[in-house]
Design a protein that fits this description.
Blueprint lengths: L2 H7 L3 E2 H18 L3 E10 L4 E2 L3 H14 L5 E4 L5 E6 L4 H16 L11 E10 L6 H13 L7 E6 L8 E8 L3 H12 L6 E8 L2 H6 L9 E6 L7 H9 L7 E7 L4 H9 L4 E4 L4 H13 L4
Parallel strand pairs: 1-4, 6-7, 8-9, 8-10, 10-11, 11-12
Antiparallel strand pairs: 2-3, 2-5, 2-6, 4-5
InterPro entries: Bact_response_regulator (IPR050595), CheY-like_superfamily (IPR011006), Sig_transdc_resp-reg_receiver (IPR001789)
Protein name: Response regulatory domain-containing protein
Keywords: Phosphoprotein
């Protein structure tokens, strides 16, 4: 056995070994808001549509696949001849498709893998995951079922499965820090009535910055949108801003600063110190709602 093949073989996971790694990756999907994609790959003889019976060649292809993936990805040797699962971390199905096209081009143009006598055919099932409610064995079973019924033309065939792309409804905290009670109520009503498919807003209001800072409302790990005036009693908006941006993991906060100040210097100062959007009053409520929606949508881009 070629030593390089043996070395790569040792780094490939079995189905049993891969399950715990897969659970770790999917558990982080919702928190990181970055998809992972699993690809179930099968290689067959195109004339008989059966797996090629050649252990050495199977190991050569496995070593080749391992060389093509990134260090953050997983290559899993499935309990079936000439079948693998490739788990691409931090990747969507579009990236998986590009990866497969590159791999297929290299593999099919290399006679060491697929000679003219064998006429190899590669099948792949691509499944993007945007939620953590999925088990590794279910993904493998689904991919194998799809590939079993696949008879596409050409040297390779790629199928896409949508079953695991559902995004779980996520709670997002919203803090409204505004001294004017009437305007505060308007903002609260506007946000509470927004039609959101993937998010549930948990809204709290505060009349000054001090009350917000003294509360424990900002201490959770939830995504947190803060809508606040820059001029507030006791603790003003800039003081709240400094406190928020000094917290660990402060990237989870999205800060909308409302102000009547329009000078370029004020805006630059606010952005330099961590404001995500600077809103000059008076402003259009519908436009404000669109800005909030866009901020939420970008969480999964």
């Amino acid at each position: 056995m070629d030593s390089s093949i043996q070395q790569n073989k040792g780094l490939v996971l079995t189905e049993k070994e891969a399950a715990s790694f897969f659970d770790f990756l999917t558990a982080n999907v919702v928190r990181s808001k970055i998809s992972i994609t699993a690809i179930v790959v099968s290689i067959r003889n195109s004339s008989t549509m059966r797996e090629i019976r050649d252990t050495k060649k199977e190991m050569e292809i496995e070593a080749f696949l391992h060389k093509e993936i990134r260090q953050t990805d997983l290559l899993v040797n499935l309990n079936h001849p000439f079948q693998w699962c490739i788990v691409l971390a931090h990747s969507k199905e579009e990236e998986a498709g590009a990866f497969l096209n590159r791999v297929c081009d290299k593999m099919m143009n290399n006679n060491a893998f697929c000679s003219n006598e064998e006429d190899c055919k590669l099948f792949a099932c691509v499944m993007e995951m945007r939620n953590s409610d999925v088990q590794f064995q279910d993904v493998i079973t689904k991919g194998q079922q799809v590939l079993q019924g696949s008879t596409g033309e050409g040297q390779w065939n790629i199928e896409y499965v949508e079953d695991y792309k559902r995004i779980e409804v996520e709670e997002v905290k919203v803090s409204i820090i505004e001294e004017n009670q009437l305007f505060c109520n308007i903002l609260h009503t506007s946000l509470a009535n927004m039609n959101l498919d993937r998010f549930r807003l948990n809204i709290q209001t505060f009349q000054d910055g001090y009350a917000f800072i003294q509360s424990d409302w900002h201490s959770s790990s939830h995504v947190h949108i803060i809508v606040m005036n820059d001029i507030l009693p006791r603790k003003n908006g800039l003081e709240v801003l400094h406190m928020i941006r000094s917290l660990p993991n402060n990237q989870r906060f999205y800060i909308f600063m409302m102000t009547k100040r329009k000078t370029e210097e004020d805006m630059i100062y606010a952005y330099d110190h961590g404001v995500d959007r600077y809103i000059v009053q008076p402003f259009n409520i519908r436009l404000f709602e669109s800005q909030i929606k866009r901020t939420l949508e970008r969480l999964w881009t």
